[in-house]
Amino acid sequence: MSKSPDLPKQSFPPVRRGPRDEGPPRWLPVYRAQKEHNGSVERSTFVVARNPDPESKLPYLLSVPVGGGLLLKARDSWPRSARVYCHPLETGWPEEAEVLERVPTSVCRRRGPAVDLVLDRPRLARSQFVFTEVRGRPAIFWQTQKTARAANPGARVPRKRAVADITVLVDTRERYPYRFAQRRVETERAALPAGDYAVASGGTVIAAVERKTLEDFVTCLSNGTLAFQMQRLADVPLAAIVVEGRYSHLFRLEHVDSGWIADVLSRLHARHPEIQVTFADSRKFAEEWTHRFLASAFADDQD
Length: 303
Hints:
The chain is α+β, with helices and mostly antiparallel strands. Helices cover 20% and strands 32% of the residues. The chain has 5 helices and 14 strands. It has an 8-stranded antiparallel β-barrel. Strands 10-9-11-12-13-14 form a 6-stranded mixed sheet. It is elongated, with a radius of gyration of 23 Å. It starts with 44 loop residues before the first strand and ends with a helix. Mean pLDDT is 83; it is low at 2-13 and 15-43.
């Protein structure tokens, strides 16, 4: 990445810090877990209880440990054969609710318009809560891979995804920035706290990409600069590094031990698994990948 220190800088708000599992989309209220009859609902525990409301058509209650705590009413206690319809529990957790099971979670985090849930048990462990709309009204479906496939037989990935207009923030020190020509993109110069390209929502950076030529990538690996850059990128909810070259070219270096460079990269991967490193073959494809990554991050944040 080539930088130019003499360009004028503009201030920009800091990144939105914190874990990625910030909870469901904005339209869904997040209700903090309240006390049960035998104690409090733990953040790292998934709880299923019987709904004490006899008039409710959703006989089960769920406590999902994501964000500030997500409480739902559900049609079933697990999506065994079909997707399970859920609805927010507006009244808070009832003290008289009979707890049917309490299971520790291995993973519970938000990914765009969905929440991934992995329970710490051998069977009936992986599922997902999908936040969508049905006939113009918000809806939540709890599904597994099997039930999702059954609900959409023969479904295929769309050939082309509609990408909304986005504004890409370009760091003021980026000397030869991507132009994003023939794409629905506006660019704006800003002094970014991390990365060379970013998108923002509500005044905060939600995704950032650090661009590297292959030569600069190897130099930053060798002198330790990349480790500090990845520390800054780790403060961004979604972050990535795109390299204008091939991974195989790391093993064709003449003046640097290729095996050592690959080992350094592997260690940084292990320390920062949340930061994706993509080798995009060339500058052209690196620009293409950067646009799609930032556009997808922005679209997921708006869902």
